[in-house]
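Justification of computing resources. Each target in the renewal requires a structure prediction run like the one illustrated here; the chain below, 205 residues long, is used simply to show the kind of job we budget for.
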Amino acid sequence: MRRNSRSNRARILAAAREELGRNPDVTLEEIARAAGVVRRTLFGHFPGRAALLDALAEEASEALRGVVTRAPGAEETPQRALARFVLSIWPVGDRYRLLLALARQDLGTERVSEILAPARDEATAILERGQGAGVFHDHLPAAVLSAALEALTLSLLESVNAGTWEDDGTRTAVASLVAAGVSDQSATVIVEDMASELRAEASDG
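Resulting structure tokens:
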């Protein structure tokens, strides 16, 4: 019974991610149908839309924490660390991009801030290190620059969601490095090298 319940919950969440990505106004009944469960089963796990979105928000938060946990040590240059960070969080953001917009409406900005906190803290730490090393500009405090890069990333994710732009994360990583103060040419080389390294790591893993 417990195993079946966990399976149903996972199927409902997976269906919710997919259906909400297609139609933000999808009903809970339509999500239940897509998950292959009856309406009563869905409501047994999630009594309303807010509860379902909150569960998806927690999934996103856990995924972001996983990315931060796998972050390299201080021996990596700040430029490469920032490229790695953006390329690593992009798949998470791409998977949950619509959720972030919905969460602001249904759960509030404070909950969204909780979701993004691990990534925000890691980005700020990388930027502080880069400013200290003189490789990132320092006319903005690291926390403010981190917030600006976060807004840039979310805006680009929304453009992907709207179908007006396409990216696998590399173009966003280049834009983030340039915004941090790296030259366009250097940023492109760093991101291409890091993307290749991450692909190799994924195939080895």
